[in-house]
């Protein structure tokens, strides 16, 4: 260890961290959304294309794939390009910032679990996105969540009067809970060894900390945004969402300090380097800290 410190080299990366970063490259468009949501949105929403190419290359995503994915994100109305001399910068559109803010609330400030159910008696032919599930002609059911926008038409709150033991079987018929549970378990299997390494003394440098954090957010985000967050009585007793959430909170907070310092030294927008910390990033960490010590479930 003394030789490593004197030589100025970064400490050796443990196998568990190397396994995460050397795994199959994430999908370019989804990963770019992760970069913007985790790093760029709370720091103004704009990033130099060169920075984006560099950060994606560390995850096995080529420059050509980055440029193709960015073009598609522009076409879909999420990004807007602008020139600054010979450099290209891409910023989030207003619509994308609203979308990213909604996703950030699920990741960094999830509301309390649903306590009951909403019954929509005028359900349209095409239902809104999850968590609505059609349970009969013109009828749709959803968890009564604080963050759920109420649809138009006749909407009622309903409660379980008896037979609550049958709720998990009922929920499994209308929501794809097995697939979501398997995705949560995959995140746990991938990242729990990293939590052990970090608690055992592994301290990644800034580049490695950010790379690990981005992989964590990318994989956790993919399943958390699919989770209908049903009332706990409707979930299996071994539901892995709670364990996965606790792992995400612990790892994100542990990796954040070195990651944010690295961002402040290497990420650029049209005005120069991004800030290492902003009011938005500080608020995220504050909320995660409160959740870690006072979990909601």
TrEMBL record:
Domain Transcriptional repressor PaaX-like C-terminal: 175-262
One Pfam assignment: PaaX
Matching InterPro entries: PaaX-like_N, PaaX_C, PaaX_trns_reg, WH-like_DNA-bd_sf, WH_DNA-bd_sf
Stored Gene3D superfamilies: 1.20.58.1460, Winged helix-like DNA-binding domain superfamily/Winged helix DNA-binding domain (1.10.10.10)
Domain of life, source organism: Bacteria
Domain Transcriptional repressor PaaX-like N-terminal residues, every copy: 27-94
Listed PANTHER family: PHENYLACETIC ACID REGULATOR-RELATED TRANSCRIPTIONAL REPRESSOR, TRANSCRIPTIONAL REPRESSOR PAAX
Protein name: Phenylacetic acid degradation operon negative regulatory protein
The species this protein was found in: Pseudochelatococcus lubricantis
């Amino acid at each position: 260890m003394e030789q490593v410190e004197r030589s100025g080299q970064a400490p050796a990366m443990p196998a568990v961290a190397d396994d995460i970063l050397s795994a199959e490259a994430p999908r370019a468009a989804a990963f770019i959304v992760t970069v913007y949501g985790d790093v760029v949105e709370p720091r103004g929403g704009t990033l130099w294309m060169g920075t984006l190419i560099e950060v994606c290359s560390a995850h096995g995503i080529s420059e050509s794939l980055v440029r193709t994915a960015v073009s598609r994100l522009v076409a879909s109305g999420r990004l807007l390009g602008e020139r600054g001399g010979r450099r290209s910068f891409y910023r989030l559109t207003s619509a994308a910032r609203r979308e990213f803010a909604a996703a950030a609330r699920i990741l960094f400030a999830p509301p309390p679990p649903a306590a009951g159910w909403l019954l929509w008696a005028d359900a349209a032919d095409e239902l809104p996105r999850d968590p609505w599930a059609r349970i009969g002609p013109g009828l749709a059911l959803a968890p009564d969540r604080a963050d759920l926008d109420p649809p138009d038409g006749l909407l009622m709150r309903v409660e379980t009067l008896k037979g609550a033991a049958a709720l998990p079987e009922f929920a499994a018929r209308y929501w794809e809970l097995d697939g979501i549970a398997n995705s949560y378990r995959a995140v746990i299997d991938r990242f729990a060894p990293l939590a052990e390494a970090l608690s055992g003394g592994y301290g990644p440098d800034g580049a490695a900390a950010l790379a690990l954090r981005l992989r964590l957010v990318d994989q956790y985000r993919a399943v958390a945004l699919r989770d209908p967050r049903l009332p706990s009585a409707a979930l299996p007793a071994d539901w892995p969402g709670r364990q996965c959430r606790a792992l995400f909170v612990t790892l994100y907070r542990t990796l954040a300090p070195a990651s944010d310092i690295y961002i402040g030294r290497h990420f650029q927008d049209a005005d120069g380097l991004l800030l290492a910390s902003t009011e938005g990033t500080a608020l995220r960490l504050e909320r995660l800290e409160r959740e870690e010590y006072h979990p909601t479930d």
